[in-house]
Amino acid sequence: MGENTRMTSVAQARDWVLAAKRIVVLTGAGISTDSGIPDFRGPNGVWTRNPAAEKASTLQYYLADPEVRRAAWRNRLRAPVFAAEPNDGHRAIFELDQRGQLLAVVTQNIDGLHQKAGHDPRDVIEVHGTALWARCWNCSDRRPIIELLDRVRAGEDDPPCAVCGGIVKTDTILFGQDLVPQVIAAAMMAADHSDLVIATGTSLSVFPAANVVPRAKAVGARVVIVNGQPTKMDRFADALLLGPLSELLPALCESRLDG
Ligand SMILES: [Zn+2]
Question: pTM, whole model, 2 decimals?
Answer without folding.
Answer: 0.91
